[in-house]
């Protein structure tokens, strides 16, 4: 079964309660965008979904409730339509006119970021209140998952409180591997899109002029199990002592961005760290990093790193 056929079946199933669609019709729309207009598959899927949302927009109530009710800590993939029951833990100041509200939702399993679009024309959420949110869509950035409220989302205020769980963890171990996709990277500059570019292309917006960023995708080994950790720009600069501007200069001098990851690998491989942060899928997101004493045996670390790579 082709990727387009699989996407078509998933889209058909998503709208099965609100629109009379066939897999063939959906696949034809996807094929036109991908083959004739050279649109990336993920962007084509998003475009087709938005088209059907326009058609089904007047049936907002029917679409809500057709999804799985999901605990926030169980969100582990982007572009999934779900229903959640959550408390508004915190509201933040939006940094774009296109965003009406942004903040943190929480339930018994943990917390997750949410974004409510200005054009969605939805009622305001109140900090501390509990809501049943129908038909929200999941998104992902640097291993962190979030949910987005759109114009098909339903909001039902509940007269109850909700205890919010904590998904923070602390892991320790020797850093035995720096994975591909680490070092100096480029992200999509489009508004509210921070996807990492692959060969100068964003999976949603196609070929763009990216913006530089720093990231390390590392593996900590405590002797019993390994933990995959993502260090964002701030954590990477703290960990390596290499700033974004210094990394760009290194890459320009060598005419190769790979030298940045190589330099970082030499600086941190084999050292012991304690990392604290939330978990999303298989990753720990490093909010707090501390280097520990007692460096690992370099030879043993290199053997371990080669076995993982």
Structural overview:
It is a single chain. The protein is of the alpha+beta class and 309 residues long. The protein is 28% helix and 35% strand. The protein has a five-stranded mixed beta barrel. Strands 8-12-13-15-14 form a five-stranded mixed β-barrel, surrounded by four helices. Helix 1 crosses helix 2 (23-36) and helix 1 (3-14) runs parallel beside helix 3 (41-56). It is globular, with a radius of gyration of 22 Å.
Describe, in short, the structure shown.
By secondary structure, the protein is of the alpha+beta class. It contains 8 helices and 16 strands.
Query: How far is the N terminus from the C terminus?
Result: 31 Å
CATH class of the largest domain: Mainly Beta
Number of helices: 8
Content-based structural category: alpha+beta
Main-sheet strand order equals: 2-3-4-6-5
Principal-axes geometry comes out as globular
User: How many domain modules?
Assistant: 3
> What percent strand?
25-35%
Order of helices and strands: HHHHEEEEEEEEEEEEEHHHEEEH
Question: Which fold name is given in CATH as the topology of the largest domain?
Answer: OB fold (Dihydrolipoamide Acetyltransferase, E2P)
Spans with pLDDT under 50 lasting ≥5 residues?
none
């Amino acid at each position: 079964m082709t990727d387009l056929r699989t996407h078509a079946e998933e889209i058909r199933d998503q709208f099965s309660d609100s629109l009379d669609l066939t897999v063939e019709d959906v696949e034809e729309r996807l094929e036109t965008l991908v083959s004739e207009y050279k649109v990336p598959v993920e962007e084509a899927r998003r475009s087709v979904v938005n088209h059907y949302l326009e058609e089904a927009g007047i049936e907002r109530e029917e679409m809500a409730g057709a999804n799985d009710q999901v605990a926030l800590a169980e969100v582990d993939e982007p572009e999934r339509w779900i229903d959640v029951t959550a408390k508004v833990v915190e509201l933040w100041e939006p940094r774009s006119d296109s965003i009406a509200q942004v903040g943190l939702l929480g339930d018994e399993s943990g917390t997750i970021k949410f974004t409510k679009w200005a054009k969605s024309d939805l009622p305001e959420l109140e900090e501390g209140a509990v809501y049943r949110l129908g038909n929200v869509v999941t998104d992902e950035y640097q291993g962190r998952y979030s949910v987005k409220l759109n114009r098909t989302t339903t909001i039902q205020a509940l007269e109850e409180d909700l205890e919010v769980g904590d998904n923070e963890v602390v892991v320790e171990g020797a850093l035995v591997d720096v994975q591909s996709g680490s070092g100096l990277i480029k992200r999509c500059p489009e508004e509210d899109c921070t996807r990492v570019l692959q060969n100068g292309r964003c999976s949603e917006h196609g070929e763009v002029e990216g913006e530089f960023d720093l990231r390390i995708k590392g593996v900590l080994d405590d002797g019993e199990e390994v933990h995959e950790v993502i260090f964002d720009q701030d954590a990477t600069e703290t960990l390596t002592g290499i700033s974004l501007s210094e990394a760009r200069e290194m890459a320009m001098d060598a005419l190769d961005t790979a030298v940045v990851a190589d330099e970082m690998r030499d600086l941190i491989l084999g050292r012991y760290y304690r990392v604290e942060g939330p978990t999303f899928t298989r990753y720990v997101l490093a909010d707090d990093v501390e280097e520990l004493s007692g460096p690992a045996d370099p030879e043993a670390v290199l053997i371990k790193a080669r076995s993982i790579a």
